[in-house]
Amino acid sequence: MFMLRRWLDRLINIAAIMASVVLVAIVMAILADVAGRNLLNAPLRGTQDLMQVALIIIIFGAVAMVDRQDANIAVDLLEPKFSLLLNRSLNLIGRWLGALIFFGIAWAMVDSASISKLLNLGTNILNIPKAPFQYLIAVCSLLTAVSMVLPRPPKVSETLVNEGAVHE
Amino acid sequence: MSNEWIGTLGVVVLLALLLLRIPVAFAIFGVGFVGVSILASPMNALNLLASETYTVVSNAELVVIPLFILMGNIATETGMSRKLYDAAYAMIGSIKGGLASATVVGCAGFSALCGSSVASALTMGRVSIGEMERFKYSGRLSTGAVAAGGTLGILIPPSTGFVVYAILTQQSIGKLFLAGVIPGLVLTALFVLMITGLTWLKPELAPQGPKTTWAEKARGLTGAIPITVVILLTIGGIYSGIFSPVEAAAVGAGLVVLYGLFTRSLTPSALWRSTRGAVITTTTVMLILIAAHMLNPFLALSHIPTAVGEFLTGLNVGPYGILLLILLTYLVLGCFLEGFAMLVLTMPIFFPVIVGLGFDPIWFGVLVVLTLEMGLISPPVGINVFIVKSVAPNVPLGDIFLGVAPFWLMMVLAILLFVMFPQLVLFLPNTMIT
Amino acid sequence: QELKLAHFVPPAHVVTSAVVEPFKRAVEADSNGELTVRVYPGGELGAGPMEQYVRALQGVADITWGLAGYTSSQFRRSMIVELPGAIPEGMTGYDMIWNAFDTSLRGEFPGTKPLALWVSEPNVFIMKDREVRSPEDLRGLKIRVSGAVAGEFVRTMGGTPVQMAAGEMYNALQTGLIDGIITGASAITDFKLDEVANSYTIGAPLGNILFYLVMNQRKYDSLSAEHRAIIDRHSGRVLSQSGEETWNALADRTLEMVRADNRNTVIDLSAAEVVVFQSVADDFLTSQTADAAARAVLNDMRN
Ligand code: NA
Ligand code: NA
User: Fold this and answer.
1) Nearest to B47 among C60, C165, C175 (CB)
2) Which tens digits make up the pLDDT trace of B302-354?
3) Residue C26 Cα, ligand 1 centroid: separation in angstroms?
4) Does any CB of chain C come closer than 8 Å to the CB of residue A36?
5) Which of A145, A158, A142, A125 shows the shortest CA–CA distance to A51?
6) Chain C residues with CB inside 8 Å of B293's CB?
7) Burial of A85 (0-12, 13-18, 19+ CB in 10 A)
8) B81, B33 in Cβ contact below 8 A?
9) Alpha-carbon gap: B140 to the closest alpha carbon of chain A (Å)
């Protein structure tokens, strides 16, 4: 179980790194587009398309990390009023509900990807196919779902995740 | 059970789940999914889960959110935001409650750079709450000022609030941005007035700061030059047609990175931290946005939008009566829902009604964003209050909500002002775009 | 029996009077109210233009409306009708589409029954501070286009194609981010472009825009033979004709409004000026239909 958690955390970290790198890349792409359009009469072809796929990677690359860092927004106004046991149970229920939803997204996205292939869907200018990005969403959602149902690790590996981010 | 009752039950369950500390996104997702399963079919719900998620996350215009958050994060890392704050402090720090007023003005300044209230409150909170604590300001006043001042981020352009409204209602982003300028300044002034009044009544809230010399004022302003240049370049670039608002966010981020590297105030690890933080904040916000898209079909299938719309338009209370009821509905919803989610959820219901009554959609957009701002600081779901709490762990949550209350009243006053004098909102968009 | 019809634009959009209301009225009257249509406008059953076809295919809504150009990779063949100069004098766009539907286009509409397929009014130049009389005038200008093929055509004429969402056009034209837009005149109304544009050029062959109204095939098959017959009777070429003519009528009204405003320059190209554009468009059409399959589709459409 501990091994699985460690591997999962490593994957989550890699996905978040991918999201961060893509954010930097899309900044540069937009700057190149702006410069090209204004200075050379030659905009970067398909920047809109790149922005679409970049946003997908930014959001779903980081989605498991958001859970891993407990960054999901919740209303904790009543937290002090609830007993420790109730709070723990509610945490657990929240995580299981989240896992169910991400599992549902993964499932539905795989199905939707087959339709994208049937319809030959892709972005408008660069014709970047849609299906691979739907598979990416599915994989990241699945990763999040599994991470949510696995027992929370001790504090040690929490810092491991954060350190990993800084070193890489 | 009729569709309308199932819809109402869904909303009640949603509120219960929220109060039971289920993460906002999951609570909305869950209710939307189960609701569509009942009103249509589970297969439909699954299909919507995929298509709504994909629609939101592949919307190129929403790239502004990570870009502006990235820009804000880097501005903080390089100390640019703090210098902007220092300048405001040097100018009005010796006035009663001046530090809190400076914070609000700093929030307004940062808002001109950053489109998100979340990022504004987070950044300004990190910079200012510690400083005010140092000068023995009450935690209630300092956190209230930051939580309320931070909401200016979605009123003063650029604003993701206006971007989302524009996408939903097909209005011009530029017009909305311009329309937000004067209301933003008016609200800032009202906040400052409120702070001055409060500290005049209760001097113990905020000990007066030292008088600054002209040299100190000049030094403060000099320090703020880089960030002022960035703000002017990005805003100027938008209005001279060199880049779009979305691109301006990337240009702004690029400029602050250049400044950071040039002055060596930005280390590679700080750049990495900013990027990573931007990605995670973005995802947190976007999950709620996606979830709200899932709730939309559920409410549409429940026919509640039509019922509420017909109810409101059928009331014999005149156009302004209906406007008032709609804004009240927003106030109530805003107490529970995250701002953008609320926008996505309700705009299809109310926008046609408002346009049908002959109200200006740009003006209405400003009123809506103002009520969104109020929602950001209203219990139980006051996002900005939670954000401020995260940077001021010593101040109890209840105190922050109390501290925010006077600012909330100022927002009510502002709404009344803009309803009575629509020209305050429409003057700039109507004169600059004809 | 209730059919859910969903689209992503406000209820006041021309699509309502062009196809939605005519179809709803006809079907409900003809079935004595047994078969009803409930409209979900403004993206209530799913936001945005991108996923409309998928939603009909998956049955999230029974009927959806959309623009082929948003997912052009799906409609490669059908969108030949959009090419500049593709529609010959005296032919209608919907006739061309339905002429070729059974032989060449059906494969692009899997899982649905197209109820209407039609094209917009001819595209025009919508410019700010620039007058266009010949392709030469476009040199170096930034022109907003909605797809890869249209972008290629702008490049052919020497302009710089710029991609952006439809909602951004107003702002971009206002600030000078773009010098002009190539699209149908009805978009002037939809996006209030008349507030920022001041020069319009009409008569050049710049292509059209293809629309679809499709119904989930399983839903259609599940209906009684009688109800299917009712739907058949009020869809196809009949409904498409209504769509195309209503769009054209709106475009005419819009252009009248534009002409009435004396701040605007409206350039109606002379026959000689049109010829210059025509030759560029002909070359472009030839290059775009270079392979035999595309040529065959165009022939099917024209016969
Ligand atoms: Na702002
Ligand atoms: Na709230």
Assistant:
1) C60
2) 877 667 767 776 778 888 888 988 888 888 766 655 555 566 557 767 887 88
3) 49
4) no
5) A125
6) 47
7) exposed
8) no
9) 17
H or E segment and range at residue C109:
none
Model confidence over A86-125: pLDDT tens digits? 888 888 899 999 999 999 999 999 999 999 999 988 888 8
Phi–psi pair at C65, nearest 5 degrees = -115, 145
Give the three-state DSSP class for C194.
helix
Model-level pTM?
0.83
pLDDT of residue B199: 93
**Both structure tokens of C262:** 């004396």
Pairs of residues, one from chain A and one from chain B, whose beta carbons lie less than 8 Å apart? 179
Measured between alpha carbons, how far is B331 from B373 in angstroms, rounded to an integer? 10
Nearest-CA distance from B203 to chain A in Å? 30
Cβ–Cβ gap C177/B242 under 8 Å: yes
Please say if the pLDDT value at position A160 is more than 60.
no
Whether B49 and B294 have beta carbons less than 8 Å apart is answered as yes
What is the nearest CA distance from C162 to chain B, expressed in angstroms? 12
Which ligand sits nearest to residue A77's alpha carbon? Answer: 2
Contact, C74 vs C105, CB < 8 A?
no
Query: Which distant-in-sequence residues (6+ apart) come within 8 Å of B230 by Cβ?
Result: B75, B80, B113, B252, B255, B256, B259
Give the pair of three-digit tokens for residue C202.
Answer: 């009409």
In chain A, residues with a C-beta closer than 8 Å to the C-beta of B286 are: 59
The interface predicted TM-score (ipTM) is 0.87
Q: Which DSSP string corresponds to B66-134?
A: HHHHHHHHHHHHTTHHHHHHHHHHHHHTTSTTHHHHHHHHHHHHHHTT---HHHHHHHHHHHHHHHHHH
Q: For chain A, which residues make up each domain, given as ranges?
A: 2-162
Q: How far apart are CA C182 and CA B22, in angstroms?
A: 49
Q: Which residues pair with C124 in a beta bridge?
A: C183
Instruction: Out of A115, A120, A125, name the one closest to residue C163 (CB).
Output: A125
Both structure tokens of C299: 């022939």
| C-alpha B401 – ligand 2 centre gap (Å) | 11
Distances from the Cα of B272 to the Cα of B212, C79, C213, C243, angstroms: 37, 45, 48, 53
A107 and B51 within 8 Å at the Cβ level: the answer is no
pLDDT digits (tens, 9 = 90+) for A146-158: 999 887 765 433 4
B46 to chain C nearest CA, in Å? 9
End-to-end CA separation in angstroms for chain C: 38
Touching chains, A (3+ CB pairs < 8 A): B, C
